[in-house]
Design a protein that fits this description.
Elements lengths: L2 E3 L21 E3 L5 H10 L3 H14 L4 H13 L3 H14 L4 H14 L2 H13 L2 H4 L3 H17 L1
Helix pairs in contact: 1-2, 2-3, 3-4, 4-5, 5-6, 6-8
C-alpha cells in the first residue's frame, strides 16, 4: 500500500507557475518493504554484504524471523565472520530449537573457529534430532564426531 502525502493548502504557492506536464496531484512516497520482501531481496543477490543488509532489515521488521537469521548467518560465514555467524545460528536455534540444519551449520562454524567441543555437541544434536537419517549422512557425521574427540584427546 502506498502512502499518499497531500500538501496543505498553505504549502502550495498559487503564484508559482506549474511545471510542464505537472498537475497538482499529491506527491507519492514509496512504501517501506516488508520483512518478506527484504528476505527475498537477500535471497536473490549473490553479494554477501547485500545479503547481510537485506536479512538484517527483515530481522529489524520481524525480530522472530528465524529463516532470516539462518540466511544471514550463512552470509556472515561466507565473509569469514564466524562469530557473527554463530550468533545468528544461536538465535535461529532459540527460535527453532529442533532445526537440524542449523545445528549442522553452527557445528561447521564452531569447528572452523576452533571450538571443537561446541562443534562436537552440535553434530551430536544434529544426529539426535534425526538429521543423520534425513540426510543419509549419519556415518559421516559420526566419523566427524570421532575425529573431533581424537583432536580433543590429543590437545
Amino acid at each position: 500500500m502506498r502512502t499518499i502525502v497531500v500538501p496543505k493548502m498553505n504549502d502550495v504557492d498559487p503564484t508559482r507557475p506549474k511545471a510542464a506536464g505537472c498537475s497538482r496531484a499529491p506527491a507519492v512516497r514509496e512504501r517501506e518493504l516488508t520483512a518478506g520482501e527484504w528476505f527475498e531481496r537477500g535471497f536473490n543477490t549473490r553479494d554477501p554484504d547485500e545479503q547481510i543488509r537485506c536479512y538484517g532489515e527483515a530481522i529489524r521488521l520481524k525480530p522472530d524471523y528465524a529463516d532470516a537469521f539462518f540466511n544471514r548467518a550463512d552470509a556472515r560465514e561466507a565473509k569469514g565472520d564466524l562469530e557473527g555467524a554463530i550468533q545468528d545460528y544461536d538465535e535461529t536455534i532459540r527460535l527453532k530449537p529442533n532445526d537440524v540444519d542449523t545445528f549442522y551449520k553452527r557445528a561447521d562454524a564452531r569447528q572452523a573457529k576452533g571450538d571443537l567441543k561446541g562443534a562436537m555437541a552440535d553434530f551430536q544434536s544434529y544426529l539426535e534430532l534425526g538429521g543423520g537419517e534425513r540426510d543419509r549422512d549419519r556415518k559421516e557425521v559420526e566419523d566427524m564426531i570421532r575425529d573431533l574427540k581424537g583432536k580433543l584427546a590429543g590437545s
